[in-house]
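Now read these lines:
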Amino acid sequence: MNQNTNKPNKILVIGIGEDGLAGLDDFARLKIKTADVLVGGLRHLNFMPDFAGQILDWSLGIKATLDVLENVGEKKIVVLASGDPLYFGVGKNIIEKFGIENVLVIPKPGAVTLTCAAMGWSQPDVQVVTVHGRALENLNLHLAPKVRLCVLSQDGTTPAAVAKLLCNQGYSNSQMTVFEHLGGPRQSQEITKAKDWCKQSSADLNSLAIELVTDQTARPLSRVGGLPDDAFEHDGQLTKRAMRAVTISTLAPLAHEILWDFGGGAGSISIEWMRAHTSCRAVAIERDPVRAKRIERNAHKLGVPKLSVVVADNAQALDQLSGRPQAIFIGGGLSAANFIDRAFAMLSPGGRLVANAVTDKSRDILCELQDRYGGEMMTVSLEGKFPVTQILIRKKL
């Protein structure tokens, strides 16, 4: 949070819909009328053509615009935002910048609420996915029969792109309802199956309600660790399904945690870690640039395009990485001098380090680790496979 004491008066963040001023109460309209500075996107500012004070749009970018607001002195500031400013909105950025004690948020029903109301859907039963400023492939994480999706669009090209993705993934029979200008006098909707969507462009202001239905080509994938091996593109450098399920269970991902995955291979451990919860993050370290590109493709295909990939050997990566992860997995490169000790030193207190070993030499290294740090060791024997020894070391709080 910014600690600059030269903060403006309390910033009022007002949610506004497609009905403009008519949808606001008397308090909100008065605050807009008496503001010294009005901030918003062009669409919102167009609702206020007679505003006489200073006007700022977001053309400089959110961070730069908020930096400007930090130096306006004692002026009264109103920020206009779509619907609920704290639901994938700018309200979060403003509060992180100025502190909640300096911000008041007045929400209105946003696109998710309005979409669910129009569909007659209970909001807790709907999976919300935003592709506004985010990769379309985030949708892949949530594809499963009978799931209801509310998709917040980037622009008018999003419905066509979503329809294409659904068809490519075996969900061509899914029903898509595309709402344009929801909540305003120009509201409209179009209902069709994904395979029948033919418009290349819709209104830029749109949202989608999707009921997922599979066709014969669909391959729904569980979010539980242990995806089939052929769900990943790989060259044989892959933690196999059963051992991967054991490893993910040992790593035990929790919401908002970060994993460093050394010896990424096909990225399977990092990807399954991130699939466990949408807030989980991971960095896959892979020295082979060809494999690194393959990890990125797998991450997009399996719905976690935010996976970070670092092309470096394990020791080099430690010099590049910052922060303190909650979990570290070492799938290769155990023998590098001092690498494990350095990695363990960077682990968060209470974090977990997990390493797998197949060769006698790497098993000896695990035994040495146990002598230094303690931990739990087990050997997993799978039919037709070499036994794998795994160690789990928990760092003291």
About this structure: Confidence is low (pLDDT under 50) at residues 1-5. The radius of gyration is 25 Å. The CA atoms of residues 5 and 102 lie 11 Å apart.
